Amino acid sequence: MKLNKNIKLSSQHFLLTNDRDIRTALKKVLEKKYSRDIDTRIVEELGITHGATRVDVAVVNGIIHGYELKSDKDNLMRLPRQIEIYNSVLDKVTLVVGKNHLHEAIKIVPEWWGITIAKIISLEKEVSFCCVREPELNPNPDYAAIAALLWRDEALNILEEINAAKGMRSKTRSIIYKHLAETLDQKELKKRVRLCLKTRLAWRAD
Asked: Are 68 and 82 in contact (CB under 8 A)?
């Protein structure tokens, strides 16, 4: 009986989700969904506020949709701070969470965030996703923070293109981003930021 109990406990532990399993499965789902969409780019570890935090997976097309992963083996200690930053930048956010954290997560995340449960459904560690709540559009983005998704040179290049770069090359990044956000209308700013993210060749300059 003691041996059987240990096997049961070991099996329960094995069925807990971890970040790698969720990430791998989610990428497969997203890649299949957008396989024929040439206007979509899937980015892992998208840096926000110049690397202060990173979105686990982001889908960039007509919007920026971030997916934050919290497996059964993670904790939610960093989530409140991540919420604050993600709310300033992302158009949509989905929290992909292990079932052990579901009830706590619902109390923490904003109502416009989507919530999806990830769970192991086989001994081969196959991950299944179940949508609890669909994401809605961010009701209150911070456009200077959106501009700050750009690298400094990218922001300056845009300002050059719209003839608004005079005196900016010697300024700090925060001033450049603020100027860009104030110069472009909101729709055009978001469009240009998304284009830069989709065509960027390297991802660690932040």
From this structure: yes
